[in-house]
């Protein structure tokens, strides 16, 4: 692959990043008024919106209700214009359904579901622009949206992807790197207790490299966590400052 | 006729983010609050490895031995004695189901309302048949939380003359955590309107009514047109409440009145513009700061 | 958070406020709410725009594709509208829940743009009789705060304004004509949207009518007419909707309002878009 080297001799990736460097992350919580919680997140050129509704009464048939815990309902969709080639439908294809069930599993593991028996929580994720790491950006955005909605969780859930190229582990892959046919490891972790809640590997990777890649992805997740947590804390501090004016007045 | 289209890039960037130190009471999910086992676990916390962790992002609150974390925004978590505004969603056996922005529909029992005539009496079958006549789907009520069931469902009552069906006016829905808990949530503002600040984030603004007829138990609503002057006050209050909520100010009667006064130099509809709203809220903030210091 | 169903007293309150030409939020009957527009936020598209009208939030992406011409109209390009009502807007849109509303809006847009002068359809034809551009106009509805039709149409017009169609070079050989798309991102042509309509919905409430109804006001409306209006005041399409009925006098009054407001909307929208282009400011997107 002349001129298309995924990792140059100097150790730079195609978009100029170092192997362990993340793409730029920017986000905002509370972008919508009507949802209980919402968040917009950019990881490089991947842009994702997440909205959370609930907990609320079960919609539709009451038979779905779980008597001892919260029912989490997810929907993953991609805007028809989000990909290079136009998508024919935003959801309902196999990939979207797989993503939906992945998201549901991930958040079942972290939301304190036993606190809300018999009710339902909706997590809707919409990919506006796709440039690799859609699952990761979706998880990170949904985590922020859940936090915005004040839903009790054990910890943040942070997802990141990684691979192995020219004997070097790389993290946070973009679309070009994903579609190069190499291996891809996707992980979602609880950053503070080092628990892995989601793990997926595509294509093939030598067994000896796996733990190395996983370690790097883990570090990537924690870097993402630090970025998110810092801004979340800053926002909270600002709000408490504001409240002081009223409560002491 | 007025049409106002702006560029998103012209929107005020908002005040700078706080970059100071964490004052210590700010936590995010997964943070350890304390390893001391002498505390009780409140809302927004969970126990693991004998440590008390936060489960939501917010501020830690300590009442004696009870530790809880209050998130910025959440669905309404009812407490006994709270004043709420609710909308009737459904009629069922001897009860109304009421939407209160809680996680479940709240319940108003037929036995928990005042019936016309006023005197306390047993509810007859006749009353059951008349339920839709008293309150039907879509109607708004003010009520008090009587009890919180184990699954989080709230039961309400309206057995006081200040509660009951609401007439003409304007409902504004904001986040419940923006309503400051006060001794009273009913206010007859000196500007010719009344406001009920429901603990559940539903805020009811209506013209001040002088005589609530006790004959009908408050179930008859007055559908006469409201004078335009009153309507202006209500619309202005509505826009002020929304502006304050947009800037995440805690709401109580004084700050709403201040916002109203600060807004008087603008036409009511101009308050919908973000820069005007921000200015009004800033004026309120300054005035509160001045009085607080 | 707003519940759709209103009590009788609330409806009366809104009805009287419209009679007084002083609505719940202080607007007059022909006032629009504050609106924000931004273009070029999605780099995977050829043109994109976002419009936020109070709480109504719409994102539009346009992608172009070369395709065979319609044999019945061999000299013009085509527009294809698709509206996706995202579940982000309301849980009721989950799954296929938003499809009915989506097809209703896309039908209205198709009708409004079916007027031959709406955009220069001839310029969209690359090779008469053979190849033309097909513009996929994809609308994503992100939040509903009333007056969806108008907000969608404004966002569509803004996205078409932002549209950059790659230039095509033609080389003739024996087999026919070969088309080559330019790779250069700065080698493109724009679409003239001066004649493109916006949709104005006029809601009849009591004896009066209002434009840009909030969700609550829409709840009080029994009948409304939806019109496509161009900058010159031409009406490109019209439809009456709702269970109520209207007499012809009130329809002509409502049309007059729509024409007036529509012309103003077009003018101010274009001014804002040209201003944005001049500024060349960085995109804000959802971050502010």
Could you walk me through the main structural features you see in this protein, from its secondary elements to its overall organization?
- The complex is a heterotrimer of chains A (249), B (293) and C (288).
- The longest helix of chain A has 42 residues, at 207-248.
- Chain A contains 4 helices and 9 strands.
- In chain A, a hairpin with a 4-residue loop joins strand 8 and strand 9.
- Chain A has one domain (25-248): Ribosomal Protein S5, domain 2 (2-Layer Sandwich).
- In chain A, strands 1-2-3-5-4 form a 5-stranded mixed sheet. A 4-stranded antiparallel sheet of chain A has the order 7-6-8-9, sandwiched between helices.
- In chain A, helix 1 (94-108) crosses helix 2 (134-148).
- Chain A is an alpha+beta fold and 249 residues long.
- With 293 residues, chain B is an alpha+beta fold.
- Chain B has a domain at 25-71: RNA polymerase II/Efflux pump adaptor protein, barrel-sandwich hybrid domain (OB fold (Dihydrolipoamide Acetyltransferase, E2P), Beta Barrel).
- Chain B has 5 helices and 18 strands.
- Chain B has helices spanning 125-129, 131-134, 228-246, 253-263, 274-292; strands at 5-7, 26-27, 32-34, 40-41, 45-48, 51-54, 58-63, 66-71, 83-92, 95-99, 106-109, 140-148, 154-157, 164-165, 170-173, 186-189, 193-197, 202-207.
- In chain B, a hairpin with a 6-residue loop joins strand 10 (95-99) and strand 11 (106-109).
- By secondary structure, chain C is of the alpha+beta class.
- In chain C, 27% of the residues lie in helices and 32% in strands.
- In chain C, strands 1, 2, 3, 4, 5 and 6 form a 6-stranded mixed sheet that branches. In chain C, strands 12-11-13-14 form a 4-stranded antiparallel sheet, with helices on both faces.
- In chain C, a hairpin with a 2-residue loop joins strand 2 (47-53) and strand 3.
- Chain C is elongated.
- The two termini of chain C are 22 Å apart.
- The relative contact order of chain C is 0.17.
- Chains B and C meet through strand 1, strand 15 and helix 3 of B and helix 1, strand 1 and helix 5 of C.
- Chain C: This is Ribosomal RNA-processing protein 42.
- Chain C: Its main location: cytoplasm.
- Chain C: Residues 31-166, 196-260 form the Exoribonuclease phosphorolytic domain.
- Chain C: Belongs to the RNase PH family.
- Chain C: It is found in: Cytoplasm; Nucleus, Nucleolus.
């Amino acid at each position: 692959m002349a001129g298309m080297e995924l990792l140059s001799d100097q150790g730079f990736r195609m978009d100029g990043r170092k192997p362990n460097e993340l793409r730029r992350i920017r986000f905002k919580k509370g972008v919508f008024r009507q949802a209980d919680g919402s968040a917009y997140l950019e990881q490089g050129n991947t842009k994702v919106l997440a909205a959370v509704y609930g907990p609320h009464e079960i919609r539709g048939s009451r038979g779905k209700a779980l008597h001892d815990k919260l029912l989490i309902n997810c929907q993953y969709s991609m805007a028809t214009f989000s990909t290079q080639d136009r998508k024919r439908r935003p959801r309902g294809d196999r990939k979207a359904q797989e993503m939906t069930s992945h998201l549901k599993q991930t958040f079942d593991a972290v939301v304190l579901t036993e606190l809300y028996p018999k009710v339902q929580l909706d997590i809707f994720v919409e990919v506006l622009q796709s440039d690799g790491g859609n699952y990761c950006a979706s998880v990170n955005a949904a985590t922020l949206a859940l936090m915005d909605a004040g839903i009790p969780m054990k910890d943040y859930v942070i997802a990141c992807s990684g691979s192995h190229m020219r004997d070097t582990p790389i993290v946070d892959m973009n679309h070009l790197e994903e579609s190069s046919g190499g291996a891809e490891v996707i992980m979602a972790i609880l950053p503070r207790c080092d628990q892995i809640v989601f793990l997926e590997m595509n294509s093939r990777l030598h067994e000896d490299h796996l733990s190395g890649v996983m370690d790097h992805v883990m570090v990537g997740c924690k870097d993402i966590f630090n970025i998110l947590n810092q801004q979340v804390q800053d926002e909270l501090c600002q709000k408490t400052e504001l409240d002081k004016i009223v409560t002491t007045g | 006729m007025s049409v106002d289209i702006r560029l998103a890039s012209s929107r005020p960037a908002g005040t700078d983010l706080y970059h100071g130190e964490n004052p210590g009471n700010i936590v995010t999910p997964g943070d350890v609050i304390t390893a001391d086992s002498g505390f009780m676990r409140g809302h927004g916390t969970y126990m693991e490895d004998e440590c008390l962790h936060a489960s939501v992002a917010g501020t830690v609150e300590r009442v004696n031995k009870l530790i809880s974390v209050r998130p910025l925004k959440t669905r309404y978590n009812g407490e006994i004695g709270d004043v709420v505004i609710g909308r009737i969603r459904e009629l069922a056996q001897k009860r109304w189901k009421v939407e209160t922005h809680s996680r479940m529909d709240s319940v108003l029992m037929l036995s928990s309302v005042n019936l016309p005539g006023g005197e306390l009496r047993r509810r007859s079958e006749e009353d059951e048949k008349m339920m839709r006549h008293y309150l039907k789907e879509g109607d708004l009520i003010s009520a008090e939380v009587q009890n919180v069931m184990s699954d989080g469902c709230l039961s309400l009552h309206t057995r006081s003359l200040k509660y009951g069906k609401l007439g003409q006016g304007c409902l504004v829905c904001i986040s419940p955590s923006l309503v400051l808990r006060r001794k009273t949530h009913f206010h007859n503002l000196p500007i010719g309107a009344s406001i009920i600040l429901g603990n559940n984030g539903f805020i009811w603004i209506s013209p001040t009514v002088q005589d609530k007829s006790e004959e009908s138990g408050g179930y008859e609503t007055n559908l006469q047109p409201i004078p335009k002057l009153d309507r202006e006050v209500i619309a202005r209050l509505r826009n002020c409440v929304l502006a304050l909520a947009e800037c995440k100010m805690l709401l109580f009667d004084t700050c709403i009145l201040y916002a109203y006064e600060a807004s008087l130099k603008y036409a009511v509809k101009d308050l919908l513009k973000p820069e005007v709203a921000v200015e009004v809220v800033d004026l309120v903030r300054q005035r509160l700061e001045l009085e607080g210091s | 958070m707003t519940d759709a169903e209103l009590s009788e007293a609330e409806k009366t309150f809104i009805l009287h406020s419209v009679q007084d030409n002083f609505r719940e939020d202080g607007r007059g009957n022909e006032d629009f709410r504050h609106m924000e527009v931004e273009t070029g936020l999605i780099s995977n598209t050829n043109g994109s725009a976002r419009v936020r009208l109070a709480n109504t939030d719409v994102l539009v992406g346009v992608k172009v594709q070369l395709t065979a011409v319609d044999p019945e109209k061999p000299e013009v390009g085509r527009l294809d509208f698709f509206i996706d009502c995202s579940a982000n807007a309301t849980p009721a849109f989950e799954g296929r829940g938003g499809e009915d509303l989506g097809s209703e809006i896309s039908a209205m847009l198709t009708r409004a743009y079916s007027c031959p002068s709406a955009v220069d359809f001839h310029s969209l034809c690359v090779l008469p009789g053979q190849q033309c551009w097909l513009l996929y106009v994809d609308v994503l509805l992100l939040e509903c705060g009333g007056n969806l039709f108008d907000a969608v149409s404004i966002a569509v017009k803004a996205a078409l304004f932002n549209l950059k169609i790659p230039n095509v070079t033609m080389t003739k050989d024996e087999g026919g004509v070969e088309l080559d798309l330019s790779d250069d991102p700065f080698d493109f042509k724009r679409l003239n949207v001066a004649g493109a309509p916006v949709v104005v919905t006029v809601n009849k409430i009591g004896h009066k009518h209002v434009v840009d109804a909030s969700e609550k006001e829409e709840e009080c409306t029994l009948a409304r007419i939806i019109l496509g209006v161009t900058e010159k005041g031409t009406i490109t399409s019209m439809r009456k909707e709702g269970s109520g009925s209207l007499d012809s006098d009130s329809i002509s009054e409502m049309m007059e309002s729509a024409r007036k407001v529509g012309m103003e909307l077009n003018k101010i929208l274009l001014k804002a878009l040209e201003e944005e282009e001049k500024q060349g400011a960085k995109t804000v997107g959802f971050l502010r």
